[in-house]
């Protein structure tokens, strides 16, 4: 179905917002490839790899305990303390997070982190050297920790020497086998039932396919699995990011239809005598909002019956990013917040009526 003019406009607004967050976090975004010029894709590649600073339970695989140099053990313990305390551990991810990888760049193998995109595994540098206050990132180290992370748990899969340049170590299937050995139930969701297993691929083969944007089914113990990270596209970008964008576009379509037919929006147009409204997206102190430019009405969406809109609202710009955006006092935030403050002066009975209907004006 062809998107409506309003849906097209809102998607453009979303990309404009994403561009503001790209600038806020200093992400490399060269726009060298026209067909990959999509601020939302660049922002989401960062946003989905970024580890939100929050306390997590630390879990170790069966590869531990293992003999490691004393300095590496100390660095592991330091990192573990940071994780349990909810400190920012993204400096240990390395510069690929913001200033090396670029979804719009000329080099396909530098558009995302291939290990993360393929298997959902993050690698962190292990060092006890203090981070320079002028340099966000930790120093490169001789050893890396290979990890899985969700909202509540942080898993150390293995610690290994830092791979040499042009090696295939980041494609070593032993890393995903560790996941299978320790948490087979986690891998069950990725199993391809009814598919006959072929031979187990080696690291060199997997790495070669990755460079050409070809996904590699995983063969483990005579079972076949899709890649837990969803893999890499032919353009060298993350398939998980692409899938997320598809769902966000569906959220924008649902949102445009809600605006065009929803009584909360139509009633406000009648009250304000507006025939050709101009809706925009913005960030205010209470999060993601829709506002109408001519009237100054600001809407905070609360629509659980529209899951794609909820995804758009809650996950495109998460709370940790919104907090930094607000603290930056971005000019666009100040404009939206001013309109929001004006909207608070609406009569109380109208305020209550809108909240009761689900999509409410602040």
The percentage of residues in β strands lies in 5-15%
Strand order of the largest sheet: 1-4-3-2
Domain count: 2
Total beta-strand segments: 10
Overall 3D form = globular
Task: Indicate the multimeric state.
Answer: single chain
User: Radius of gyration from the CA trace?
Assistant: 23 Å
The helix tally amounts to 13
Outline the biggest β-sheet.
Answer: 4 strands, mixed
Secondary-structure-based class equals: alpha+beta
**Secondary-structure element pattern, one letter each:** HHEHHEEEHHHEEHHEEEHHHHE
> In percent, how helical is the residue content?
40-55%
- The average pLDDT score comes to 88
Low-confidence stretches: 344-362
Provide a compact summary of the structure:
This protein is of the alpha+beta class and 362 residues long. The chain is built from 13 helices and 10 strands.
Write up what this structure looks like.
The protein is an alpha+beta fold. The chain has two domains: about 30-235, no CATH class; about 260-360, no CATH class. Helix content is about 40%, strand content about 15%. The chain has 13 helices and ten strands. The strands form three sheets. It has a four-stranded mixed sheet with strand order 1-4-3-2, with helices on both faces. The longest helix is centred in the last third of the chain and has 23 residues, at about 240-260. The two termini are about 35 Å apart. Residues about 345-360 have low confidence and may be disordered.
């Amino acid at each position: 179905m062809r998107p409506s003019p309003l849906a097209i406009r809102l998607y453009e607004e979303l990309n404009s917002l994403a561009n503001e967050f790209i600038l806020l976090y200093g992400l490399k975004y060269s726009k060298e490839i026209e067909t990959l010029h999509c601020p939302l894709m660049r922002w989401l590649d960062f946003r989905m790899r970024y580890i939100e600073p929050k306390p997590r339970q630390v879990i170790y695989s069966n590869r531990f305990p293992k003999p490691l140099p004393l300095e590496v053990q100390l660095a592991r313990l330091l990192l573990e303390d940071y994780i349990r305390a909810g400190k920012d551990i993204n400096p240990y991810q390395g510069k690929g997070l913001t200033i090396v990888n670029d979804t719009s760049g000329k080099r396909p193998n530098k558009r995302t982190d291939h290990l993360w995109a393929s298997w959902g595994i993050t690698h962190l540098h292990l060092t006890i050297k203090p981070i320079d206050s002028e340099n966000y990132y930790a120093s490169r180290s001789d050893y890396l920790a290979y990890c899985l992370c969700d909202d509540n748990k942080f898993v150390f899969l293995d610690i290994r020497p830092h791979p040499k340049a042009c090696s295939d170590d980041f494609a070593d299937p032993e890393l995903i086998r560790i996941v299978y050995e320790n948490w087979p139930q986690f891998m069950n969701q990725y199993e391809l039932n009814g598919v006959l297993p072929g031979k187990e691929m080696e690291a060199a083969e997997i790495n070669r396919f990755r460079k050409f944007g070809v996904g590699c089914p995983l063969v483990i113990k005579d079972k076949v699995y899709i890649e837990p990270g969803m893999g890499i596209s032919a353009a060298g970008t993350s398939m998980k990011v692409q899938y997320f964008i598809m769902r966000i576009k569906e959220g924008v379509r649902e949102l445009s239809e809600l605006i065009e037919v929803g009584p909360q929006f139509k009633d406000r147009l009648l009250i304000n005598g507006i025939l050709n409204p101009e809706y925009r997206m913005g960030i205010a102190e209470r999060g993601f909002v829709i506002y109408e430019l001519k009237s100054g009405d600001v809407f905070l969406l609360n629509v659980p019956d529209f899951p794609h809109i909820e995804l758009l609202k809650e996950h495109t710009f998460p709370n940790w990013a919104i907090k930094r955006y607000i603290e930056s006092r971005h000019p666009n935030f100040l404009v939206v917040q001013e309109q929001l403050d004006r909207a608070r002066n609406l009569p109380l009975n109208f305020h209550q009526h809108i909240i009761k209907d689900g999509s409410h004006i602040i």
